[in-house]
Queue: 2 jobs
Job 1
Amino acid sequence: MDAQHDVLVVGAGCAGMRAAIEAFDAGADVAMISKIHPTRSHSGAAEGGINAALGNASEDDPETHAFDTVKGSDYLGDQDAIEILCREAPGDVYQLENWGAVFSRTEDGRIAQRPFGAAGAPRTAYAADITGHVLVQVLYEQVVKRDILTYEEWFAWKLVVDDGRCQGVICWDLLNGGLKVVGAKTVILATGGAGRLYTGTTNAYSCTGDGMALALRAGVALKDMEMMQFHPTTLAPTGVLITEGCRGEGAYLLNSEGERFLKDYAPNAMELASRDVISRAEQTEIDQGRGIEGNVLLDLRHLGAEKILERLHGTRELSMVFMGIDPIHEPIPVRPGAHYHMGGVDTDAWGQTSLTGLYAAGEVACVSVHGANRLGGNALMETITFGKRSGRHAADWALANTTVTVPEGVVTDAERELKALLDRRDGERPWKIRDELAATMHENFGVFRREDQMQRQGQIVDGLRERYERVVVEDKGDVFNSDLTQALELGFLLELAEAMVVCGIARKESRGAHARPHDFPERDDENFLKHTLVTSVDGRPRLDWKPVTMTKWEPKERTY
Amino acid sequence: MEAATKPAEKTMQVRVKIWRYDSQTGDRALKEYELEAPEWVTLLDVLDLIKDQQDGTLAYRKSCRMMICGSCGMRMDGAAVLACKTRMYDIVQAGHVPVISAMGNLPIVKDLVVDMDPFWDKFKAMKPYLQPGYEEPTEGKEYLVSQERMNVIHKEALCINCGACVSECNAMESDPAFLGPQALAKGMRFVGDARDANTVERLEDYSGEHGIWECTRCYFCNERCPKGVDPRDAIAKLGAEAMKQGVDTDMGAKHARWFVKSAETTGWLRETELVPKTQGVISAISQMKFAMGLAVKGKVPPPIPPHVADRVDESRALRKLVKEQGRDGYAGIVQGERALARLEHEASGAHGGMGSLESADVTPGEEPTAGKAD
Ligand SMILES: Cc1cc2nc3c(=O)[nH]c(=O)nc-3n(C[C@H](O)[C@H](O)[C@H](O)COP(=O)(O)OP(=O)(O)OC[C@H]3O[C@@H](n4cnc5c(N)ncnc54)[C@H](O)[C@@H]3O)c2cc1C
Ligand code: SF4
Ligand code: SF4
Ligand code: FES
């Protein structure tokens, strides 16, 4: 064992840092592992804001927040967890402000809040258009203040499970090379999302679902894995997010015939309809041949140069850097892109998984507060509140228990497996498999899901997994071997894709992000008001179901 | 690299040269790569294509690919850039073959990857966390702070810790221990925060050896920062605030004080007198050659006799105005530096003095647009 701690947090985005801070404050010896420096985590890319019923912009209360969230989840969210989130959110946001978060302000100097989709009140606290960045900075500042040890650029590759408990993590040291073993009484997974399963995604290169795969391999269940949210305005081809603010300012969405096609889908709300509605409308246009090379057009021109320069400066910069298109003169090609994974590691409201000593928080987890559809601004809030809660629980548990054992065999097995991978010289390099996986997921498991496409995707993923067995890492060196870590990430993604497809096929209804207009166009509460659960049995996914927890809200039709 | 799913995507031939560094052998080599790439690619996409299809051992950092995580700082043709912010199309059209290398002022680990530890050590040396004072947040909620007051640190808060400024910093080249533009900008983020109570202690910390007065004002950091943080302006604000708070025992602070005095009495920045005033006569003589060199280039007036500018009254009025408006300390600095910069760039006359002060009001934080979503 190279080191040992009470609490070991894997991942240092908003969820991971918040968990580490809480565990530290509870008196535990805590450390973080992160494959990139904490401030580089993708939480920093969040623009819009974080939801809490502060009531600074209008009357609001946690109860209304909870109802909006339950309804937004298409009733698949667990209502006990949602109530906890909404109740603790205000205090948690004040905490961030007291630590120094640079929130935007109201006239009277309070935290400013803006309206967001499907929310009954302006509830989204924000820091201009860099909310995530500001939160990452303030959390990192607090980590520095406490001098919390971070194993930076260490890649978590395996969980150590012994005696029915999670007791540590095996990592690859990216900067210096070599496997490192860190023992811990409790381990908190906070590794973020898995958007890299898709060609077009708003997620960073680092969002490869590592923690979900680690849990799956350790026998822990993943929940609602079919629920991947698509954002309607992402730049083709890279998937970089174009903010909803454009539509807020009055931008049009046009098809190849120059029509504002939303008139056929949401004649009242038009471009201001909810995310899933617009994503589906766009995909329908594209599928029916009214797209432009797989895109529709986001037209800002009529807003005029002045407004674009003043209000949508960031969008213009993104469009010019990534597309070479100046939206003052040309429309921007956009399409739905994978944005947020509602599914993840199955946990309770303290972040505990079914494996003693293993916790999960943030996008990697599925508590579930988002159910089948996440509301904008709730993801950041989840990272903070459930990061805090899991940090607290993991610390308490660790302080009440003493031993950590990492059996020698676990380490030697890992070393052998790694050596076999690095020694392999004949075979395929990972990138083609990665690109094929992402392209086919986009095509066959995207905005719309058809039975035959999902079946085909299952076979495709099988084939890709077979090819992956013979994958070759070209870089054999120790220093900054990202060729190796990227190959390991691909292994994670392939297993998650398989799990998603199994869940998608099993859910024979349309709910939230899971849209099956061709065979099961309606929500079916009688048969499917329940979570999918998938565990790995002999390397293959096994499907189970789990009831949704309901406290006070009966399912109703979701109309806005 | 994103998979190219669309058919008939327009492509171009891209050529780049990359300084490779093998940390295990210590070998350095400039290698040229040629590849076909879609027209939309950035430098980061080009590196990805090379790593995928030509050489899996190429090392560089990346994550967000949207200019927010700060991973992908490197040099293109000797100047620091974010790879993901650098669009290749125009470079290729111009027939240019750029040279890519690791950032400067930081030890190279492998190829384009530098050791960021010295960078983060300096960051941590700033005590980069809020140190609140006696004031309590109201009713256990948030501190009440106006947006205007928040705007003071708006630019500093944009920093993504990419290191581009540090890479290009002149002062750091001669003194690797110089705290540097990023750390000092972070320092200003707290000095300027109404909620922070340790302003004086911070200014004392930041004013010591390797601190704010070591900056040579080359402005490279402002120029290369991909996020518009303008670290040099932050340093100037710290300097002004240090003087305002009486933290001015350091030589650099004396230098700056004399600067003000000089401008007030003569209307000129009497650079030639600055040296003796702040360093003593002996060392002044050894610097005479340098000063004369500047005089020849017309940068400072010849040493003898000191003369009074025609419009000294204007200069004095400017200083008075600054004081009256409470624009001494950091609040005056954005304008102060900007005004100076403008004076340097525009021939004296039309835009000097008062004009600059007018137009250089505190840089406001951009008013957040309503309804912006994630
Ligand atoms: C463009 C964009 C905009 C968004 N805007 C908003 C918004 O406005 N409001 C909102 O509420 N939500 C928003 N979201 C969603 C929200 O930002 C994310 O869900 C949330 O930030 C995830 O935080 P996290 O801490 O779980 O993960 P991340 O911030 O992604 O952090 C993951 C961490 O895990 C580490 N890690 C991963 N794998 C490993 C491994 N194998 N070994 C070691 N370390 C590892 C990484 O290094 C990183 O530190 C947005 C998402 C995107 C993509
Ligand atoms: S202005 Fe100062 S801090 Fe900025 S690069 Fe030049 S010497 Fe460094
Ligand atoms: S000040 Fe600018 S260049 Fe320097 S680290 Fe911050 S963002 Fe990068
Ligand atoms: S990859 Fe994040 S800033 Fe370039």
Job 2
Amino acid sequence: MSGERLSEDQAAPGSPADGTAEPGPSPAGGSGRGGRTGGTRSGRRTLTEGQRSERRLALLLCAPAALVMIAVTGWPIIYSVWLSLQRYDLRFPADQEFVGLANYVEVLTSSYWWTSFGVTLLITVVSVAIELVLGMALALIMHRTIVGRGLVRTSALVPYGIVTVVAAFSWRYAWTPDTGYLANLFAPGSAPLTDQASALAIITLAEVWKTTPFMALLLMAGLALVPDDLLKAASMDGAGPWQRFIKVMVPVMKPAILVALLFRTLDAFRIFDNIYVLTSGAQDTSSVSILANTNLIQALNLGIGSTMSVLIFLSVALIAFVFVKLFGTAAPGSDTEGRR
Amino acid sequence: MAAFGGTDTRARKLRWSLLNTLVVVYALVPVLWIMSLSFKTPATLNDGNFIPREWTLENYRSILSTTEFLRALLNSIGIALIATAIAVVLGTMAAYAIARLQFPGKRLLVGVSLLIAMFPQISLVSPLFEIERTLGLFDTWPGLILPYITFSLPLAIYTLSAFFREIPWELEKAAKMDGATPGQAFLKVIAPLAAPGVFTTAILVFIFCWNDFLFALTLTSTERSRTVPVALSFFTGDSQFQDPTGSISAAAVVITVPIIVAVLFFQRRIVAGLTSGAVKG
Amino acid sequence: MSDIVLDRVTKRYPDGALAVQEVNIEIADGEFIILVGPSGCGKSTTLNMIAGLEDITSGELRIDGTVVNDRAPKDRDIAMVFQSYALYPHLSVRENMAFPLRLAKLDTATIDRKVNEAARILDLTQHLDRRPSNLSGGQRQRVAMGRAIVRNPKAFLMDEPLSNLDAKLRVQMRTSVSRLQKQLGTTTVYVTHDQTEAMTLGDRVVVMRGGVVQQIGAPQHLYEHPANLFVAGFIGSPAMNFVPAAVADGGLATALGEIRLTDRLRRAMERADAPREVILGIRPEHFEDASLVDDRMRAEGDVFTGLVDVVESMGSDKYVYYALDEKARSAELEELAADSGSSDVPASEGQLVTRLSAVSPVREGDHHEVWFDLGKVQLFDPSTGRNLTLEA
Ligand SMILES: Nc1ncnc2c1ncn2[C@@H]1O[C@H](COP(=O)(O)OP(=O)(O)O)[C@@H](O)[C@H]1O
Ligand SMILES: [Mg+2]
């Protein structure tokens, strides 16, 4: 028992006056932090009354949230896999039948799917890259500004808070010929939203505008973890501002950056609202979400739509997997115990 | 930092002011633009001017006189408030357990809610569409409230458990020593400390629900439960010939106001909420 | 005010950890008693059981003769001061101190009177309307004390109340805690891991280790008559020197040279059935520069010549560290060192710490002769740690 506490003991009898705070149990101590010391040895087998009632309370508290989340996602996911294996068009309900993987073959050989997939990837990569840069700049400004910090932070929250559809309409009207203040920015009389390249650029712009502040806030959380002393030490060691940023801040912030990237990448991959309002997917600007929605709700083809849903789900899972494996992104909250 | 001297400080202040202005312009221009549109008269609507030449409240008057908009506004408010209330209550319970209690399956719960936070909502649209039609939930308030709760729960759980971890729980013991019953200890000491976190979470969840478009688009079909974001995308104008731009802009401004107010008053809390959840990685 | 009795009190945590074992303590009315021991030895657990914040696994806790094992904290009429102070951040200083009185449903006038009185005693009057977050560490500490004393409870429990203060403030507060306790005459149980605090504050000190009480006694008694190696090493600063000793004809072979057995030591050895090996302990302050010792004293002691490693001049006296060539450390000593979490109980390997007069001319690098008082030497059983020199 005592040996394991070794490193925690500061105050030895030999040093009467300098033994400051005993690094004993943290304030959260009490029941929050059971399984230490003897726990691993004998705790598993015997559950005492106290422990059992703690578990009961915990399960009781978590059950409603867990049930809702599972009921609304778990079952539908299974159902959607089942739907994806059916021919099921609501306009011809009588034709419903099990078709195995036929829907998958149909989707995966369709050029619409691959165009949308490409568009989605392009928007995801480009917007997340821009957001990372802009977001970092914004985070630095919000974190370090010496004047008007409240003003900057408040303004930055506006894009985060505003309804995406509202922002999308603002961008749409801004680029609509005649109506918009930006319409004639590049070529007078053109209609930027009716051309694939410029439409995609505008979609990306709208997406970047809306989500950069969120990225910046996540990054700012990371910035707050960089100790001021570390930066001072670095400048004493002769590092200029840029070197301080690259050599000190970025490595310390790396976990926060990866989490922000993961979140935003997955979020960008689901892009829907902006495209729906800006182009409705015309001129080959559909994202996979838009395409799936078109098949589901407009064409009422549940079989094909569900197939796309499942494929999108798999893509997202793959992206998350790659992030976790490649960069070792720690999922936020995955480490609820210890460390901090 | 302060050791850099007076004139230098002034230059630095100027530089920061410029950067700040840039941020403010970036953040506000699209909002100001849609406001500007909402105040334009039909005649000047298509002049491309950033600032209206003629101001009018006609657009507001017209949308506020249609049930199409008013009903949607009622739906939006009702659905978002109910979903927020439920999500915050359920989230508080779960977050308390996660932050304070030791139980098997804690990691699983955290993992599952993380998965849901990253889940592509479109993947749920077809099964939910089908299931809700079977259960009679399609195009009803509960039909939207349920997915809203589900997708805001992860957010609520993260933010709240981050807040809960910050509460010095020793205070609970102190209160008991001071003669409080467990109930009093909770009401007089823990609840006042937890309230700001719960409130912040409620704002974040409300923003999330208020913002949704995809579920509202796919799980509703009539005015009965259609929310404003969807309703305004369906605006066609009073007549076939009328351009809905003015009405859409006015409706957009109306649903933006609550957000701006929340951001203005609770900036600090929102930032704290978003960042505290993020660093607990 | 009341007496508190712990009768074979044991605590096993839900996870199976045995934190406190069969603790027996009888605390008299008005007594100031200290629980001391290294971190993790079960002091807080013991205190929390007295408070009612932790259940007692077995044994009995009696306050004023009544068994209170199953009473909620609020029904025990005991006040507690926490290491983190546990001040309610959303309440002002006044409201913090009034909190227990409010819960006790006292009328406003009485509450005001009591709070003002406590604030006056603790010199907090001008801070009454501030929030705890705006106070300094020392002020917060005093608010925590204030919240405890306003109630006039049967007993105070304090869990390392001073350990978050800086060294100087801690010494000041130590005195005022002591004065306050004398003034109020309230039974007080005080937990600390700092032996200096334990020695200076308490009427009696309870030394704990690994959940087991090692010895209970007045500070001076523990210092002079430690029951075992652990107490000997834990109490006193700098810590007692320990050197292994082998019994040779008529004396003890140690790294300090051959030491002759005085009558007292011989009796101790005989009581213990003449073991082959013992551990010899001697405190730094029982050394003196041999050149400053008169013949009469010299006769009562022995001398040792060694290489002076380090000299620390404290002004009033000098700490002189000698290098010892000491290979055989007993397992007990190793464990003890590990247990107290520091390498300087017993004196770090191969080193002898002595405290000599300031006038000693000793210099680093010298081979210098020191005298030590054989009358103060203690002998310990290497296997059990028991102090053999204690007269039964
Ligand atoms: N809530 C708990 N659950 C399990 N073990 C605990 C708990 N609190 C303390 N312990 C264990 O009990 C032992 C004694 O702890 P404590 O009384 O806090 O020691 P001290 O106050 O002397 O530093 C330690 O080994 C510690 O790890
Ligand atoms: Mg302790």
